[in-house]
Amino acid sequence: MRLLWGSGRRGRIRFLLMSLGSALGVACLAAVLTIPIILAAHDARAAAREPRPGTSNVVYRELRDPYGQQRLHRIFVAHTRPGATPVPPGIDKLPGPGEVIVSPKLHETLTANPRVAGLVPGRVTGVIAPEGLGGSDDLYAYIGANPADLPDAETLGGFGTGRTWQPVVEPSTLDILRFVLGCIVLLPLVIFLSVCARLSGESRARRLAALRLVGLSTKETLRVNAGENVAAALVGAVVGLFAYVGLNEAMARIGLPGLHWYPADGRPEGLTVAVCLVGCPALAWIVGQFSARQAAVSPISVRRTDERKPPKKYGSLLLIPGLGVIGGYCVLSLMGRDPSAGPNSSVLVPGAVLATGAGLVFGLAPITAWLAQKFAGVVESLPVSLAMRRTEVDPGSSLRVVTGLVLLVFGASLTQGVLVELDQISRRDSPIQEYGIRLNEASSAQRKAMIELPGVQSSTISYQSWDPLDGSDVEHSDLVVGTCAQLAKYTEQATGCVDGRIMQLRDDRTAYEYDPKAGKQYSFALKNGQKVTFTVPRERIDVRSWDLSVFESGALLVPPSLLPSDLADTDGVLTLLSDADPATVRSVLDGVGAIAPTASVEPVGIVIDSLAQLTVIRSLLVVGMVLGLVIGVAAFVVSVADRAMERRGQVTALALLGARAGTLRVVQVVQVVLPLVVGLGAAIVAGWLAESSYLITGGGAVHWDWEGLPLLVLCALGVVLAAALASVPMVRRHIDPEHIRRD
Question: Which of 69, 101, 635, 670 lies 20 to 30 Å from 190, alpha-carbon distance?
């Protein structure tokens, strides 16, 4: 440290930049390491409030309905007799009849949108405390009711289960998220921290070589360099942790789309603090040991600027197995084979992605040096020739400049693949939205009011055939009440329908669980306990329904005039039909909830859990991309600035020889653009193949993300243009003989 502070302003500025760079890296590292902790804290509180059946003086009914892209979670409770009752976290006692206890977010929603009040009937008497909520954006309510108002209610045993049934992110998806965040944040972060630990590498090597020549041993020389790195990294780690804590306090109050947390959830734990305070200085120590080894072992060659050794090519060999595996999956898909069922894909694809990313990093220097050598032999332009020769001699400095951006583009391809795969799970392409409400959960007046709701275009009733409910596997058949006009309007295709006759809906293009044959009879329960029999007719309607529709293949279409009026409500479902635009869906769901608050509504095809998880994952991946972009840009800026400072002696020599300012600037731009073009081009190709292999092994319908490829190319071109413009002011033609006299 005495040597550092005594070396003048340049040494102190370098130490400050190293510390600030480490602080930025540690803040990003803490953010990535804390994401699983935030999710785990959310799930732990959600598990602690889960009701479980048992024995008590309270019955309950639990409803989970979609509200936009969020879950609206309602617990209806009713006291059957006096006495002590179980109490969930966050409230002091369960509400009585006509009372409601809601989450703060739901309270705001009720105030802003009075129509939602029908979903939570009663007077708000309290607000749930944070320990009873997964996050600050939870829509949660405990609603007091009378036992007679809760059909099919269960006896409440208590609250709290081993795990929540609705985690923020499913464990399998969380593993994918961790892997992707590691690729787009942690890998560039290691490169960035290494760059920060090697600032002013050439001048530091000369200074260390001088120390070695005046009597320090090899080990002591290495310790001097590593000690400076560790001191800067440790200061930066402390600053970075404090910066992350402040950022967490601010972001917890703002939140992310689909994910809100409390400030305490995001505060770093002991393990995170240890990783940041120990891992970053340890990495700086390792980098310091390796970066100063040549100066310590061969100080004369460093002081006299001996001929540099060409970069080793062994690292680029990692591209062979990496591209071989992901390319193999792509070839299998082109051949018409589906390798998604293979048991080894979950191991091979992530391993191949990591090998490809590492190959891009370690193979960039030898590939760039080889290309520079070839270009220098054929070009006749003096600036380009100078740039190519310099890149050929020292490709390692170019590697430090562009590696972060190359890894960012490679990770962006993989991120697109994850989003495409998740989007396939929750996407619904039907222009029609159906809502299923069980008949025994709504009275006749309530059903009539639902049918007349604004936005509801039509309705139908369906019944399932009689089931002995003894656990035996009995074939079922559904009957749907409807007309030919209704069928034609609310299906994709329907031909052969005749009004006034019972007919079977058939779609030979799709598979279905049961295959009712013509002449087979199915029994349907009546309200009096007896049964009525329907025979499967020979007449069929060739129908192609929208995915997950009440008009499914195998069902019987029964005209309203031929339907018995006393079929049991327990086997029936009222289906409302409307447009599928989000505003209409939200309006219909609000209306149904206001009419029958205790009835469960199934918006067919809308997997609210998948939509909520997709929103959270998109938010976290966007955070990861922003962190990766910050790291990549910071590594680029630091490297370019450091490189310009280190080469002032070379620029001075060229200026004394008569090189013009334009020539020097072209040399600087070409030296940056060449490795960037090579690296980004390889990252786009390798990343797109990696994304395709992930989609292929995922088993989804989309194997090739052609829509995302132009976006990646445009982003890469923008990066190259920005890098070229940013490199221009880094060269000054100011002649300072001091830079040469020093050497």
Answer: 670
Q: How far apart are CA 409 and CA 184, in angstroms?
A: 8
What distance in Å separates the CA atoms of residue 187 and residue 635, rounded to the nearest whole number? 12
Question: What phi and psi, each to the nearest 5 degrees, are found at residue 159?
Answer: -125, 145
| Angstrom distance (rounded) from CA 437 to CA 449 | 13
Q: 270: pLDDT confidence band, cut at 50, 70 and 90?
A: confident
What SS3 class is residue 603?
strand
Phi, psi of 557 (to 5 degrees): -90, 115
- Coil, helix or strand at residue 104: helix
Distance CA 408, CA 728 (A): 23
Q: Given the DSSP bridges, would you call strands 99-102 and 139-144 parallel, antiparallel or unpaired?
A: antiparallel
Helices (H), 292-342: 293-297, 299-303, 319-334
With contact defined as beta carbons under 8 Å apart, do 435 and 586 qualify?
no
The pTM for the full model equals: 0.69
Query: In whole angstroms, what separates CA 296 from the centre of its chain?
Result: 46
Dist CA 592 CA 587 (whole Å): 9
Please name which of 715, 716, 712, 719 lies closest in space to residue 692, comparing C-alpha atoms: 712
CB neighbours of 618 closer than 8 A, spacing ≥ 6? Answer: 257, 258, 419
Q: Report the share of the chain in percent with pLDDT over 70.
A: 77
pLDDT, one tens digit per residue, over 285-329 is 877 777 666 666 667 766 565 555 666 666 667 777 777 777 777
